[in-house]
Amino acid sequence: MVSLSKMEQSSSSSAVAAVISTNANINTDRARRRKKKKSVLQKHPSKENRNSQSHAKWKTEAQQQIYSSKLIQALSQVNLNPSTSSAPRQGRAVREVADRALAFAAKGKTRWSRAILTSRIKLKFRKQQHKRQRLASTSSGSTTGSRSRSSRKHKVSVLGLKGKGLPAVQRKVSVLGRLVPGCRKQPLPVILEEATDYIAALEMQVKAMSAIAELLSRSTSEASSSSSPMTS
Fold it and tell me: Locate the IBH1-like N-terminal domain: which residues (predicted)?
């Protein structure tokens, strides 16, 4: 009986030791996984963290200075002579230059910046294509031109009817996709991500352009005051 009880005690103690060792192994494995996960997160931050960092960069003073220098450099190459171009055309040119400088500041890392950078190339191609079509339509006669105009009107009306039949949420998503460059046919998560970054970039653009306009108005007022004759 004594030998049996000793055997039972030894078996129970060995079982307890086995349980303790397995628990210790589990704990060490969990600790290793946590360390590995932490190191991976530090090396490769999550998509949300990357997005928040990219949105926050537009609010820094350094980014505003970088964009301002790019914008001034680009504006110096634009012809803003009022005698050769009208005011709306000048405003359009300034707007295009400001948007391109903003896309360059974003370094093409976002969809909207890549769309702005490639839009100029697409615009040149469309102008060339439009010229060719106009020459072809004038050579073929006015009847084909009237047919093409009627077909365009029909297409526009059909697209308008399709847009009206969409639910309210889908209409708002499609409108937002049109407002953000390069997001016309993208899903909702992509549109929201790009719109958040684009809005932050536009806010920085407004601040930078306001600061430049204030500096220019101050310099012109100082120049006019210094050039005016001294009165007794």
Answer: 62-120
Burial of 192 (0-12, 13-18, 19+ CB in 10 A): middle
Angle at 88 between CA 98 and CA 110, to 5 degrees: 25
The H or E element spanning position 47 is helix 47-57
Predicted confidence (pLDDT) per residue in 192-221, tens digit: 999 999 999 999 999 999 998 898 888 888
Q: Decide if 64 contacts 91 (C-beta within 8 A).
A: no
| Distance in angstroms (rounded) separating the CA atoms of residues 48 and 196 | 12
How many Cα atoms within 13 Å fall on the side-chain side of residue 3? 0
Residue with tokens 């006015």: 142
Q: How far apart are CA 192 and CA 194, in angstroms?
A: 6
Tokens linked to 143: 């009847």
* Neighbouring C-beta atoms of residue 195, cutoff 10 Å: 16
Domain residue spans of the chain: 88-140, 158-197
